[in-house]
Design a protein that fits this description.
binds protoporphyrin IX containing FE; 2 domains; single chain; 24 helices; oxidoreductase; oxidoreductase activity, acting on paired donors, with incorporation or reduction of molecular oxygen; monooxygenase activity; heme; monooxygenase
């Protein structure tokens, strides 16, 4: 280089640093355009270019000076990171118009580490309070609290699923249905599930749920006058019921207790995997470590045992497996074993954890709202007086107060706090919903907890349990006495567009109607037989403190005293 008549020759280190920086910028463009979970592609892009530069600049390929190698890697990696961060913070980024905290805009690792404490639902809600209905919660991710956008994003022609399940399960292969991002593959897989949860199929599951509910009642009767952790009993009930419904049996936690620690494996997995749900690529890397996948492998092995047993023994009833294995469609060949195992786990985990949590929250809400408890008791006594068979669902349709109690519990303490993750495909057009434009490649959460607790959707008492709001709702005025209807607050708001405990559309919770049936049967059975009390010194704030978001909400400890009703 010539300057003021002098010739300057760049030192090899300087030359190395410049080339490395330029390659760092180029590599950022490659990462930006091509998403991949391929670890060898990532490693090659991260490690090979600086080495090549150091080699090229050196005189001898046999001996590269250590400092040059160091300079090359330092310049390459720091330019790559700097370019990545400045782009994410710059007005050129497609999500630049959406506000959000700096940490979220820079890296998903920010939310990943925050999520470990279990309060990301509260964090997102606070962000919405601060920034509005659309918040940037990751470099390429939004949280949405806009009721009018719910149907467009997750409804009948909504977006495909997002990638968080890939991270949670530490693999991008053999995903259960809930994690399948490709729309048509998801739809194909969902057909068997839809048959397994048709009204006719659910009617056949009624009897087995009723039997398990009665077994739960009998086990609790043994603890009359004593204190129990009711959430543990719901864990046992829901796991046994899901195994019955999915495989025609295979679990006896209500009878034997949790000797194999099924529930601690499930809960530990949920907590640990929340981190990786935010950074799927890191989850996939982590999945290569044998120790990391041990809990998932033990679940797979247990479920494989159930599948094999079910295949050998068949089933006296039409269980969910009957449909998942295409036994109802003889012309279709059965799916591969791995798919049956993956979907079997999905049924048991997705069905047991959620229902157990929802039942625990119902009991907590009733015990902290004695007037509601009394009203529900009156309704249960009317339809299911002592001696009336609670496993029959014939009166459920008429039990409007029970429906209001369940709806309200699922509003305030929704087991799926985060709602649904979806993603605008990177290789297609962006999506416009009203004034909201979502660019290609953006992942998003339609955030149930924020929608459910927003005073502009549910008022008064948006944070409190108040089942009456469902009776005051415009579509059910005839359910209330004239005096009660007169008591309706003038500023009453009830926006069911914002209510989504089971999500919506063709990828919503396929087990919704089964879950509601299960909950109704158990609540009627318990209210008919028992009067529960909270332990005297129980601090009810503990419930909110321990109601944590690990995709499915954790179930706080709920110590109750059991009394038999005369
Ligand atoms: C109160 C209980 C339950 C709640 C609140 C709940 C909630 C949810 C939510 C929010 C989703 C995500 C849907 C989406 O991505 O849009 C989901 C998916 C799913 N749920 Fe549930 N669920 C419950 C019970 C059950 C039960 C009993 C089953 C029975 C097997 C079940 C099976 C599933 C399955 C298979 C999916 C994946 C659906 C798909 O990807 O197409 N759930 N659930």
């Amino acid at each position: 280089m010539e300057l003021d008549g002098h010739i300057y020759v760049w030192s090899p280190e300087r030359l190395t640093a410049t080339y490395a920086a330029v390659l760092g910028l180029l590599t950022h463009q490659v990462f930006r355009r091509h998403e991949t979970y391929c670890i060898s592609a990532h490693l090659t892009l991260l490690l090979a270019p600086p080495l090549l530069i150091a080699l090229t600049v050196s005189d001898s390929w046999q001996c590269i000076p250590k400092t040059r190698l160091l300079v090359s890697y330092a310049a390459y990696l720091s330019t790559l990171v700097l370019s990545l961060v400045s782009y994410r913070l710059s007005p050129l980024h497609p999500l630049a118009r959406y506000p959000g905290p700096l940490g979220c805009r820079v890296s998903k690792l920010w939310m990943a580490s925050l999520s470990r404490a279990g309060y990301q639902h509260v964090y997102y809600r606070d962000l919405h309070k601060r920034y509005g209905s659309v918040v940037r919660i990751g470099p390429n991710e939004l949280s949405i609290r806009e009721p009018s956008a719910v149907m467009a994003l997750v409804g009948p022609s909504g977006l495909p699923k997002g990638p968080h399940v890939t991270g949670r399960l530490l693999t991008d292969k053999d995903l259960p249905m809930i994690g399948i991002e490709d729309l048509s593959t998801h739809m194909t897989r969902r057909r068997a599930w839809n048959r397994g949860f048709s009204s006719a199929a659910i009617a056949e599951y009624e009897e087995l749920v009723g039997r398990r509910a009665m077994q739960l009642v009998q086990r609790l009767e043994e603890h009359q006058g004593k204190q129990v952790d009711i959430e543990r009993w719901f864990d046992y009930f829901s796991y046994d019921a899901m195994c019955d419904m999915t495989f025609g049996g295979g679990s006896e936690l209500l009878r034997d207790g949790d000797e194999n620690n099924v529930w601690s494996v499930l809960s530990a997995g949920m907590t640990a995997m929340t981190f990786f749900g935010h950074v799927p690529w890191l989850g996939v890397y982590f999945g290569y470590l044998p120790a990391a996948t041990r809990p998932i492998k033990s679940l797979l092995a247990a479920c494989k045992g159930l599948v094999e047993q079910r295949m050998q023994q068949g089933s006296r009833t039409r269980d969910l497996f009957h449909y998942l294995n295409h036994e109802d469609q003889m012309e279709q060949s059965p799916p591969p074993m791995r798919q049956l195992v993956d979907d079997g786990i999905l049924a048991i985990v997705g069905g047991a954890d959620t229902v157990s949590g929802a039942l625990t929250s119902v009991i907590f809400c009733l015990l902290t709202h004695p007037e509601t408890y009394d009203k529900l008791q009156v309704e249960v006594d009317k339809y299911y007086p002592p001696g009336e068979d609670v496993s029959s669902t014939r009166w459920h349709r008429d039990m409007k107060y029970l429906e209001a109690v369940i709806n309200e519990t699922l509003r305030v303490y929704s087991p799926g706090l985060g709602g649904s993750q979806r993603k605008v495909p990177a290789d297609g057009p962006g999506v416009t919903v009203g004034s909201l434009y979502i660019p290609p490649g953006t992942a998003l959460w339609v955030h149930a907890f924020s929608l459910h607790r927003d005073p502009s959707n549910f008022f008064p008492f948006p944070d409190d349990f108040w089942p009456e709001r469902w009776l005051l709702a415009p579509h059910s005025p005839d359910l209330l006495s004239p005096e009660a209807a007169d008591a309706k607050p003038t500023n009453f708001v009830h926006n069911e567009e914002a209510y989504m405990p089971f999500s919506h559309g063709p990828m919503n919770c396929v087990g919704k109607n089964f879950a509601l049936m299960e909950m109704r049967i158990v609540i009627c059975a318990l209210v008919q037989r028992f009067r529960f009390r909270l332990r005297e010194d129980y601090d009810r704030a503990d419930y909110d403190r321990n109601f944590k978001d690990y995709l499915i909400a954790s179930r706080p400890n709920l110590p109750v005293i059991i009394e038999l009703r005369e």
